[in-house]
Amino acid sequence: MIDGIIIRGVGGNYCVDTGEKLIECRARGLFRIKNIKPLVGDRVKIRITEEDENNGYIEEIEERFNEIKRPPIANAEQLLIFFAVTNPEPSFLLLDKLLIAAEINNLKPVICFNKCDLADDEKKTELEQIFINTGYKVIFTSKKDEKSIEKLKEILKDKLSVFSGPSGVGKSSIMNAVQPDFHLKTGEISDKLKRGRHTTRHAEIYKLSFGGYVVDTPGFSSFELSGIGEYELKEYYPEIKKFDEGCRFADCLHNKEPNCVIKDSVSEGKISETRFSNYRRLLEEIQKAKKIY
């Protein structure tokens, strides 16, 4: 049998990259009996048909180390979260939701501020400070800046990465800059809505010539907080976890409680006001949803 990775799946047909060529495969009926559906990103073992060396059957699916539900992808290693430095202005609340999505799905997040040619050093420092003490990697990219593209290539090399973020921030343009033969369709910013037109309709893996794969999908942009409890939310804010042991109350939500160390940390600049404000907004969302149910 031959090892490979599923790079595309449509209507029960799966395109498997063996490293040497692409093989069109069907899954064995055994998977249907066991209610197992092959996913894009699955590492598989295939058997080539005797009739056609370009066709085969998926015989085995290796154990997944993670599985994203929407969009359905297996074995992704990192989530690159793209926002533009401007045009459109970044939504830090959505960015925080995507960071939480990364943590939930066991993905390493990388924050990418694109169109960095539109920002000066002061603006870049301001954006970096929002994520002080989080441990998150923050990079700046532009299709016009070759150094930033090379840095991005280093991050992508030999990994299965998911590109996420709202439309209009230049994800497709950056992918085309990383590997020009992608020729992905790019959307224009709508002057009326100041939002990009969606240009990506389904999850598909693209192979990188220098090693690794990327998935461009809008699916992560619609992430919601279902399933996260009010006391669990702070676990997804590394800087809050870092300082919250000093709080007077062990079950402090860092919202309206007195003698809260986290509030002091915000005042001292150890935690950004933007992140703390988003935390409180998300906490309010969770508490409102809890009352409804």
From TrEMBL:
Residues holding GTP: 114-117, 165-173
Keyword Hydrolase belongs to the record: yes
Binding-site residues, Zn(2+): 247, 252, 254, 260
Pfam families: RsgA_GTPase (PF03193), RsgA_N (PF16745)
EC numbers for this chain: 3.6.1.-
SUBUNIT field: Monomer. Associates with 30S ribosomal subunit, binds 16S rRNA.
Role according to the record: One of several proteins that assist in the late maturation steps of the functional core of the 30S ribosomal subunit. Helps release RbfA from mature subunits. May play a role in the assembly of ribosomal proteins into the subunit. Circularly permuted GTPase that catalyzes slow GTP hydrolysis, GTPase activity is stimulated by the 30S ribosomal subunit.
Name by which UniProt lists this protein: Small ribosomal subunit biogenesis GTPase RsgA
